[in-house]
Write a structure and sequence with these properties.
There is one protein chain. With 205 residues, the protein is of the alpha/beta class. It is 48% helix and 14% strand. Helix 4 links the parallel strand 4 and strand 5.
Length: 205
């Protein structure tokens, strides 16, 4: 008899955690072997149990942020990470995917879809992403914003961009801050990563 797929759940909402544990454990081929409500507890549990799958909430009370949280769990050997979150921002999706997660599912997904995603990841199909996110379009960018994203994606500094666009580095900085706010990102580095991943470095201009 084939062994069941082992799962550790890391989620800080008790009702969600209990519901997931009950529903997933009811599947014949799945087994929830541990639950945690903080990132530290989840890391310790996952390192100890070495589950096949870690179902990870992105926003935990003791985490430093989605990127570092995902990186920490992705570093656990022989375990695959599926993010399970209410955060549908494409910018966050792109950043988290770069850390090596095997899936990104929204909490609006039915249990059947979550169970299916676990099986897909174990079969080597990754990343598994909520359909709602796959069809989401990039936020609409003006020509000026697209040009700025292209230059950032090519590795240009504020001073170089300012010289090219006949404006000051401080003006460029303010334009970057406006883009960060528009995309829900927190740093220039994350904006550059998003621009590269979105293909802006390949555009003309």
């Amino acid at each position: 008899m084939q062994s069941r797929i082992s799962i550790v759940l890391v989620e800080d909402h008790e009702a969600t955690l209990k519901g997931l544990k009950s529903e997933l454990s009811a599947e014949a081929d799945l087994e929830v072997v541990g639950i945690a409500s903080t990132s530290e507890e989840g890391l310790q549990l996952s390192r100890s149990l070495k589950p096949n799958i870690i179902l990870l909430d992105l926003h935990l009370p003791d985490s430093a942020g989605p990127k570092s949280l995902s990186e920490s769990f992705c570093a656990i050997e022989n375990s695959k990470v599926i993010v399970f979150t209410g955060d549908d921002r494409e910018a966050i999706l792109q950043i988290v995917l770069q850390t090596g997660v095997s899936g990104y599912l929204l909490k609006s997904e039915p249990i059947a879809r979550i169970a299916s995603a676990v099986r897909e990841v174990m079969s080597g199909h990754a990343p598994v992403i909520s359909t709602e996110l796959v069809v989401t379009k990039h936020p609409k960018m003006t020509n000026t914003e697209q040009h700025l994203l292209t230059l950032l994606a090519r590795g240009m500094k504020y001073q170089e961009i300012g010289a090219l666009r006949a404006t000051s580095p401080e003006t460029v900085r303010k334009q970057v801050e406006a883009l960060l706010d528009k995309l829900g990102l927190e740093s220039r580095e994350s904006l550059i990563a998003w621009a590269v991943d979105s293909g802006y470095g390949k555009l003309g201009g």
